[in-house]
Design brief:
alpha/beta; 390 residues; binds S-adenosyl-L-homocysteine; seven-stranded mixed sheet; Archaeosine Trna-guanine Transglycosylase, Chain: A, domain 4; 20 strands
Length: 390
């Protein structure tokens, strides 16, 4: 067996259950393991720390798959794991669509599987998990008998692991434009060319949270992508809804979704840069009962954190200025590096500059199919706030 021995003086992170082992925590590698292969990890005192996959080229040199010395890492291991993931989601009430596997939070580091009813989208973002792709695909076939499996590995982070970016069918080819159901509504999803895995399942519980505040309201949504929040608003009884996205494709898809749900007399979408539109409309004196903001991640690197903070402040400040007194702001942030406390501080500072008072309605995170593991910072990334703007 190939072995990795840890240094004596390392942080407690690994002992406390975190699955990552950084290159600078490794004292010695025994047996010359192939990159991507399975290794056993030992603490400096010789105790077994776990079993995982190694990539000597990556700064995160090992990611643990198990701490059970008896566990064999083979095809059955992955099938059992995926069964457990599905069992957990079902227990939480997910039936059709869910993030079936959320990487580290499911003890399957760097593996993402989104389930869209009978269709599955996979990402394998590290060399060691990419190796097991055939086993994972086979497990999905055995457990779900799916209508289609698609690989969305067009993700730059793969290059850090020496992997190519790629997207392709992992089952017999099928029509990758599908329709999913969510909260009683229908949405077109483009598994092949949509953003990320095609659809943002992490907001599915948050979309329900706007149910009461949009009744009879004039609603503005910005960063709408395929219009999910806006179509929910129309469905929940908004008087009018306008959605903005910079992508013409997203806007076309969003308008198609409005028609699909027979809500196109209430909601429509336009292509615009939200930064410009919010600024211009607030100075023109336009006002809405509800403004919803769901921008993309503003930075993936700590070096650009100030730019991200400025971006959040700008759109939230502009958004608040557009809200009638007693209206509501619905605002999200998916930037991992902008943690919860920082996000709330930004909103607070925007409110002060806008001379508005906020009364919090709800503050939550991503939906429960994206589990948050305490002590594993990266697993909590989504911030979602609804506040009355007085
Ligand atoms: N609310 C959506 C997800 C939004 S993803 C959902 O629940 O599905 C973020 C979106 O912001 C993307 O569709 C992207 O095209 C859009 N976007 C990025 N920069 C923008 C800008 N400056 N103005 C408007 N939209 C922008």
């Amino acid at each position: 067996m190939k072995k990795v021995h840890l240094k004596r003086k390392i942080a407690n992170r690994i002992a406390n259950g975190h699955p990552w082992i950084f290159a600078n925590e490794v004292e010695k590698i025994e047996g010359d393991p192939d990159p991507g292969s399975i290794v056993d990890i030992f603490f400096a005192d010789g105790k077994f720390a776990g079993r995982g996959y190694i990539n000597q080229q990556s700064q995160i040199m090992v990611r643990l798959l198990t701490r059970d010395k008896k566990a064999l890492i083979d095809d059955t291991f992955f099938e059992n794991k995926i069964r457990q993931c599905w069992q957990y989601r079902r227990q939480l009430g997910y039936t059709e669509n869910c993030r079936l596997v959320f990487g580290e939070a499911d003890d399957l580091p760097q593996l993402i599987i989104d389930k869209f009813n009978d269709y599955f989208v996979i990402q394998t973002l590290a060399l060691g998990i990419d190796f097991w792709k055939p086993a994972i695909v086979n497990a999905l076939k055995v457990i779900f008998n799916p209508k289609g499996i698609y690989e969305r590995n067009d993700v730059p982070v793969r290059e850090l692991e020496g992997l190519l970016q790629q997207k392709e069918f992992l089952s017999a080819p099928f029509d990758t434009n599908i329709i999913i159901n969510e909260n009683g509504l229908k949405f077109h999803v483009d598994l092949k060319n949509g953003q990320k895995t095609g659809y943002f399942l992490d907001q599915q519980d948050n979309r329900k949270a706007i149910c009461n505040i949009v009744k009879g309201a004039d609603v503005l949504g910005a960063f709408t992508y395929t219009g999910t929040f806006e179509i929910h608003a129309a469905h929940y009884g908004a008087k009018s809804v306008l959605g903005l996205d910079i992508s013409e494709n997203a806007v076309a898809q969003a308008n198609k979704n409005a028609v699909l749900n027979k809500l196109d007399h209430i909601v429509h979408f336009e292509a615009a840069n939200a930064f410009d539109a919010l600024k211009q409309w607030s100075s023109e004196g336009k006002r809405y009962d509800v403004v919803m903001l769901d921008p993309p991640s503003f930075t993936k690197s700590r070096a650009n954190i100030d730019k991200a903070i400025a971006g959040y402040k700008e759109i939230n400040l502009r958004g608040m200025k557009l809200i009638k007194p007693g209206g509501f702001l619905v605002t999200s942030s998916c930037t991992n590096l902008v943690h919860s406390e920082m996000f709330l501080q930004i909103i607070d500072s925007a409110a002060k500059d806008a001379r508005r008072k906020l009364r919090q309605v709800t503050y939550q995170s991503q939906s429960a199919d994206h589990p948050i593991i305490w002590g594993m910072e990266n697993t909590q990334y989504l911030k979602f706030l609804i506040a009355e703007v007085i």
